[in-house]
């Protein structure tokens, strides 16, 4: 089915630094649009009917034998169930290993003066509460649009993103999937170009 034949069922702009969540029904597609470019979008996925069935970075990476996500990547649970599939990607490289920023990690990495800064973990907890999820339900997340190369010595770098204004990633739900998003508020490294910006979330069927 072409884009012109699809029906938009949800179209929302997520402001900079805040969280967002929705259930994407099986067969529907979620487009995440980087409106201004160079904005990381942290993401967690859960089966809408059983939240213990959740995105597993380990299962996903082992199945595809690649630590980065792009077109064709199946986002799996520990049991091997595919929650969503990347069906289109205008950027070509998305991070699975750097995790979500938190007040604790900000303090450790950037100094105690950052302790008060809002972070992705807080967004995930606030959105998760709406669906009965708590801190124990948070797992390693996806970082859409975030550029985290593996250096020659095995360390991870966080560098300027590969995205640009209007670039998007498209995900098809294989089962009814709860999507939690933190529109990353990080200002201490270049994952957001030191200037967090809004993103657009479009669900179509």
Automatic annotation (TrEMBL):
Domain DUF1989: 12-178
Entry coiled-coil feature ranges: none
UniProt superkingdom: Bacteria
Protein name per UniProt: Urea carboxylase-associated protein 1
């Amino acid at each position: 089915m072409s884009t012109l034949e699809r029906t938009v069922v949800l179209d929302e702009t997520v402001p900079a630094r805040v969280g967002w969540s929705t259930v994407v029904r099986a067969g529907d597609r979620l487009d995440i649009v980087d409106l201004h470019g160079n904005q990381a979008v942290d993401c967690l996925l859960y089966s809408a009917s059983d939240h213990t069935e959740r995105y597993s970075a380990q299962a996903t990476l082992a199945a595809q034998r690649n630590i980065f996500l792009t077109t064709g990547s199946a986002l799996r649970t520990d049991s091997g169930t595919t929650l969503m599939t990347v069906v289109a990607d205008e950027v070509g490289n998305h991070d699975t290993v750097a995790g979500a920023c938190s007040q604790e990690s900000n303090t450790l990495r950037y100094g105690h003066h950052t302790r008060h800064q809002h972070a992705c973990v807080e967004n995930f907890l606030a959105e998760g509460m709406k669906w009965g999820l708590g801190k124990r339900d948070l797992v390693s997340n996806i970082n859409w649009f975030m550029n985290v190369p593996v250096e020659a010595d095995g360390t991870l770098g966080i560098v300027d993103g590969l995205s640009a204004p209007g670039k998007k990633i498209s995900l098809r739900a294989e089962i009814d999937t709860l999507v939690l998003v933190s529109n990353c508020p990080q200002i201490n490294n270049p994952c957001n170009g030191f200037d967090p910006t809004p993103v657009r979330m479009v669900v179509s069927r």
